Amino acid sequence: AEATPERSYREQLNFLNPIAQPLASRKLTRKLYKCIRKAAKHKQIRRGVKEVQKFINKGEKGIAVLAGDTLPIDVYCHIPIMCEDKNLPYAYVPSKSDLGAAAGSKRPTCVIMIKPHEEYQEAYDECLEEVSALPLPL
C-alpha cells in the first residue's frame, strides 16, 4: 500500500470539491488520521456513506471525517447536513485514499466516523476539540 507516490497536502488541495468546508489543516489532518488508525485497531470506526448515515440517524456520537476529493459530490453531500442536525462535529480531509489507508483498508473511502473509546480518549478529545473549533460553512 505504501508503494503509491504520496501527494503532498498542498497538491491534494487542487482536487478538492467546492463543498469541502470546514477543511482540516495539515496538522489536524495528521491528527485525524492518527486517531482513525487507533480507532480502527479497536474496531471503533464506521466506514462508508451507508454505514455512517445509518448510525448518525440512530444518534451515535463521534467525529465524522469526510474526503474532500470525492466525485460526484451527490454521493455524500447530505452527510454534513445530517451532522449539523444531530450536533455532530465533522471535517473534511483532502484525500479519500489517505482516509481509507488510515482506516487500514486498501480501498479509498469518502466518509468515516470515529467513535470515542477509552483506549485513545486523549487523541480523540484533542481531535474533537479542534474539529469543533472549525468554522462551519454558511
TrEMBL record:
One of its GO terms (cellular component) is box H/ACA snoRNP complex. SUPFAM superfamilies: L30e-like. InterPro entries: eL8/uL1-like, H/ACA_rnp_Nhp2-like, Ribosomal_eL30-like_sf, Ribosomal_eL8/eL30/eS12/Gad45, Ribosomal_eL8/Nhp2. Residues 31-122 form the Ribosomal protein eL8/eL30/eS12/Gadd45 domain. GO terms for molecular function: RNA binding. It is found in: Nucleus, Nucleolus. One of its GO terms (biological process) is mRNA splicing, via spliceosome. Keywords: Nucleus, Ribonucleoprotein, Ribosome biogenesis, RNA-binding, rRNA processing. Pfam families: Ribosomal_L7Ae (PF01248). PANTHER family: RIBOSOMAL PROTEIN L7AE FAMILY MEMBER. Belongs to the eukaryotic ribosomal protein eL8 family. Required for ribosome biogenesis. Part of a complex which catalyzes pseudouridylation of rRNA. This involves the isomerization of uridine such that the ribose is subsequently attached to C5, instead of the normal N1. Pseudouridine ('psi') residues may serve to stabilize the conformation of rRNAs. This is H/ACA ribonucleoprotein complex subunit 2.
